[in-house]
Design a protein that fits this description.
single chain, 200 residues, alpha/beta, Rossmann fold, 2 domains, 5-stranded parallel beta sheet, 9 helices, 5 strands, globular, binds adenosine-5'-diphosphate, transferase, P-loop_NTPase
Length: 200
């Protein structure tokens, strides 16, 4: 089974493209979802985080208080390193499991939906890289209008990611989402046909 890395800056429409790929029958391995799942109540990672960063990072209902964890875990590089040491192996294991599962189900291709694919250098491990590309001012406006972020926060999040030129340079295929969402489906279909040889 071959791997398609799907990425794009925050607000680029990557999740929208992932839905189109899922609709075409490809299994989607969602990095954000995995990162949330490994800290759900009952997961060993959540216990390790509470042991390391304090019991009060757990809400009364046992869920993770993300804001408090972030405050502590991003306070110093050492604390961030501890966070990564706890979470990364679990994330990697789950990602590997899901790729293995997709292969065992007979899929020829699986998609890794990963916002930081290029930022973290994982694109080199993919057979094909698709980048969803949108001009950054447009992304700011979409994040403010559709996702309720305030403008400063939207800009800060965009600036915290790798720059668009570097992301584009890693792409085998670029999906242009500067226009309307209706323009996405034909681009996805064309790319999928080129990659898999199958007309979606
Ligand atoms: P990402 O997963 O890359 O952060 P999303 O797919 O969530 O981005 O898209 C960000 C927001 O912009 C969503 O609310 C989405 O509905 C909206 N959006 C996506 N594509 C377009 C488009 N072409 N025009 C306008 N809004 C769009």
């Amino acid at each position: 089974m071959k791997k398609i890395g799907l990425t794009g800056g925050i607000g680029s429409g990557k999740s929208t493209v992932a839905q189109l790929l899922a609709h075409a029958g490809l299994p989607i391995i969602d990095a954000d979802k995995i990162a949330r799942e490994i800290v759900e109540p009952g997961q060993p990672v959540l216990r390790q985080l509470a042991d390391t960063f304090g019991e009060d990072i757990l809400n009364p209902d046992g869920t993770l208080n993300r804001a408090l964890l972030a405050q502590r875990a991003f306070a110093t590089p050492e604390a961030t390193e501890k966070l990564n040491t706890i979470t990364h192996p679990a994330i990697e294991q789950r990602t590997h499991e899901l790729f293995t599962q997709a292969a065992s189900e007979g899929h020829q291709w699986a998609v890794w939906d990963m916002p930081l694919l290029v930022d973290k250098g994982h694109h080199t491990a993919m057979d094909v890289v698709i980048v969803v590309d949108v001009e950054s001012e447009t992304r700011v406006q979409r994040l403010v209008t559709h996702r309720g972020l305030d403008e400063t926060d939207a800009r800060a999040r965009i600036n915290a990611q790798i720059d668009d030129d570097q992301r584009r340079a890693a792409a085998d295929y670029i999906i242009d989402n500067n226009s309307t969402p209706e323009k996405l489906a034909p681009q996805v279909a064309t790319i999928l046909e080129k990659i898999t040889g199958v007309h979606a």
